[in-house]
Every structure is written in C-alpha cells, then in structure tokens.
Backbone:
C-alpha cells in the first residue's frame, strides 16, 4: 500500500509543536534553577538568629530567669491556701440518744400514798450525729520581717536575669563571628582546593611524560619515581583539604540550621580591604576598648560578683537566733451542713476566724549556717578573681591575635612576591616553548610552583581574616 504524503501544513504544525515543547522544557529547567535557594551572608545570619539551637537555648534560659524574678517578687505577697474536704460516714460515732419515760419515773421514790402514772413513751435527747461532715479552711500567710532575705533574693534573681540576657547577646556575637570566620575560611579553602586539583592534573601529566621519557632513555627511573611521589603528595594533600572543607561546611550547616546547605548555594566574597586595616591597629586603643564598659563578657562577670554578694547577704540573714516573722490569717468552717446550700448551717456555730503571729529561727544545726556564710564569702572572692583573670585573658588573646595578624600581613607580602615570581617564570617558560628552546615538563613544573604559591597566599589571607574577626569581636562596641 502506498504511504500517504504528509501535507506541508501538517508538517509545519508538527515542527511548531516540537519547538514549543522544547522551549517549554528549557523554560522549566530555567525556572527550577531559579527556584534553587541561594544565600548571602545576611541571609545566613538571619537563619542563624532564628534556628541556631545554642542561641535558642540561651534565650530560653533568659525567659526562665524572668520567671524566677517574678517568683522573687511574689515572695513579698501573701500566700493564700484553701483546703476543702467532704466526708460521708456510713457509721457515725454517735447514735441517737433517747430515754423511756417509764424507766425514768420508775426510779423516782415517790412519797407514801402518792402514785404517779406516766405513759410509756421514748423521749429523744439527741438525734444522733449526721453522716455528712464538711470542712473549709482558708489561710493567708504574710511575711512581716525576714532580715532582708526576701529583698536580697529579689536582687539576686534580678542579677541572674541580667546575666542571662547578656549571655544571649554574647552568644549571638560569638556565633556571628564564627559565621564570618567559617565563610571566609570556606572561600579561601575552596580556592586552595581548586589549585590543588589543577596541580594534581599537571602532576599526572608530568608522570605520563616522565614514563615516556624513561622508555626513550632520556631520563632515569629515579626521575619517574620523584614525579609519582610528587603526584601522590598532591593527592593526599587534596583529600586532607577536602576533609577540612567538609568539616567547615558541616559546622556551617549546624550554625545556620540549614541541613541542605552546600557551598554552591552561597554567594560570599571576603572583605579583604577590611583585613588590611590591621596595619593601622593601635594596641593601646584596642586594649582600652576591649576592657571598656561595652564588653559584655566583663559585664557578665560584674553581675556574677553582685550575685555572690547577695548570696552572702542571705547567708548572713539566715544565721542562728535571727527569726523570721509572719502573720497568718485563717477562716474555717467544719460541720455537718454544707455552707450556703443547706438550711441552718450557720446555726451550728461551726466557723472560726483567727490571726496568728509566728516566728521561726534556727538555734543550732551543727554549724551549717556558719559554713554557708564562709562558703558565700569564698564564692564572692572567686567571682572577683574570675573578673581579674578574664581581663588578663582578653589582653593576652588580643596581643596574640594582633601578633598573628602582623605575621600574616608580612607573609602575605612575601607570598605575593613569590607568586609574582612564579607567574613570571611561567611566562618565560611559555615563551621558550614557543621559540622551541623550552621543555613542556619545565613549563608544567613552573605552573605547579605558581599554583603552590597561590595556595600559600590564600592560606595566609585565611589566617589574617581569622585574627581580624577575633580582634573585632573583642573590641567592637555592643
């Protein structure tokens, strides 16, 4: 059977549909690529502030500390307790009490000739105890005088709350600094890995050329082994760098709370011009700023000194023969009728109202109170020494990081010269190869040296960035 000929119109329509379908596929791919989330430093910081577990734990501790302050304020107000009970007795302790009139009068000695006839009947003296028993007790206890324990407790918890609030801020600052350091380290480490990958390819090429030259008898087997050793060293170094990169990236995922985060999703360039501001650092001004009132770590220790002082005051107020005074007001009802519901409940006169003045003190407990005072004094001294030690640590860290930054700047200058020399050598070898006087192996070796110099330069920039961000954290106003 002869095949039908396709009309030009149908064929044209088919082509249009195919092109439309292909364009739709390309559009979908573009849309999917656009939907892939990318993050800059600010967006990563926003995620950190919302999803970081360490920061959220610090916030929850601060929230709990505010509740402790409210509890301390509540200590000044009376505590009110209500106790309600209802009992039904299947067998009452007191049954009904009655007397028979005949028995009662038969025991009376009447005068002679006097005869008293009494009808035989029972006289109820007591109906018996009712089977229901209700009890209501409302008690209010108001502290009157506690030797300042309540006031010092409030001040203590207020100081602790201030500490928790400052810890939220310091945690946020620490994590922000860590984010900057991790991003910068990942950036430079990624550049170094790219260099090493290129070096590995060049080294593999050099090994192939060495093996061919050995077969031709132009080089020794020892030269081939040295080329292979160099290639293997680069491979090992590359694996080590990739492990470090993965570890930094995993830390960044935990830091920001983004489990699916990859380096390709991040848009980041380190502020290298800011790093070189380390050349202008003034140690005296930095020390003054680091130890100034804006340092929240030192502020935390100042509050902890106050906490220790208030703890000591509470211990002194709790010593022997210092009684606490309190007033207690109580209203009670206990009877067989339910108040305000059953009739005649108030006729029983089963309610009570009392005011009590009470005191409580410890006379002797084996010396524990005295030990508490000594312990609180020791804690106060420890808090003061911790404050002094923190200042010394800050100054020491500041000097270490400034020296590290100074050394990194010197090494960067050195590595830049070394890298420039290596690039010049590559250019020279390239020109020699074009003229026929050079060798490809010498060019490859020059390129490897240039990449090594570039990696060392990146490494020093990474060290400078870490020192810069650390000094910035220690000295920035918060």
Residues:
């Amino acid at each position: 059977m002869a095949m039908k000929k396709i009309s030009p119109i149908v064929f044209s329509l088919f082509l249009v549909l195919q092109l439309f379908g292909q364009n739709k596929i390309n559009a979908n791919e573009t849309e999917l690529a656009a939907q892939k989330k990318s993050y800059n430093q600010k967006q990563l910081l926003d995620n950190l502030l919302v999803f970081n577990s360490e920061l959220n734990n610090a916030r929850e501790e601060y929230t709990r500390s505010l509740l402790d302050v409210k509890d301390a304020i509540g200590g000044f107000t009376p505590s009110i307790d209500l106790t309600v009970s209802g009992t039904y007795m299947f067998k009452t302790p007191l049954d009904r009490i009655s007397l028979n009139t005949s028995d009662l009068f038969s025991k009376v000695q009447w005068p002679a000739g006097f005869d008293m006839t009494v009808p035989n009947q029972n006289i109820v003296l007591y109906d018996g105890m009712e089977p229901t028993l209700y009890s209501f007790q409302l008690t209010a206890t108001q502290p009157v005088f506690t030797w300042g324990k309540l006031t010092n407790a409030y001040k203590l918890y207020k100081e602790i709350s201030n500490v928790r609030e400052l810890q939220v801020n310091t945690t946020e600052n620490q994590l922000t600094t860590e984010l900057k350091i991790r991003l910068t380290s990942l950036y430079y480490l990624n550049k170094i890995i790219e260099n090493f990958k290129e070096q590995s390819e060049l080294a593999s090429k050099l090994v192939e050329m060495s093996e061919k030259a050995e077969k031709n008898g132009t080089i020794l087997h020892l030269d081939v082994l040295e080329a292979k050793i160099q290639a293997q060293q680069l491979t090992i170094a590359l694996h080590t760098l990739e492990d470090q990169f993965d570890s930094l990236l995993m830390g960044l995922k935990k830091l920001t709370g983004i489990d699916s985060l990859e380096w390709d999703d991040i848009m980041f360039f380190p502020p290298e011009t800011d790093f070189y501001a380390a050349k202008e650092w003034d140690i005296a001004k930095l020390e003054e700023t680091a130890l100034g009132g804006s340092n929240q770590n030192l502020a935390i220790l100042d509050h902890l000194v106050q906490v220790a002082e208030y703890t000591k005051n509470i211990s002194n107020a709790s010593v022997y023969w210092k009684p606490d005074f309190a007033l207690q007001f109580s209203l009670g009802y206990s009877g067989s009728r339910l108040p305000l519901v059953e009739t005649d409940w108030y006729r029983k006169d089963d309610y009570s109202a009392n005011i009590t003045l009470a005191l409580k003190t410890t006379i002797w407990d084996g010396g524990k109170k005295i030990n508490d005072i000594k312990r609180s004094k020791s804690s106060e001294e420890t808090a003061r020494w911790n404050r002094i030690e923190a200042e010394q640590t800050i100054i020491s860290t500041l000097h270490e990081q400034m020296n590290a930054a100074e050394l990194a700047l010197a090494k960067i200058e050195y590595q830049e010269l070394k890298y420039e020399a290596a690039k010049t050598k590559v250019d020279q070898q390239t020109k020699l190869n074009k003229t026929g006087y050079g060798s490809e192996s010498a060019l490859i070796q020059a390129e490897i040296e240039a990449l090594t110099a570039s990696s060392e330069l990146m490494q020093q920039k990474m060290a400078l960035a870490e020192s810069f961000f650390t000094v910035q954290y220690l000295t920035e106003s918060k």
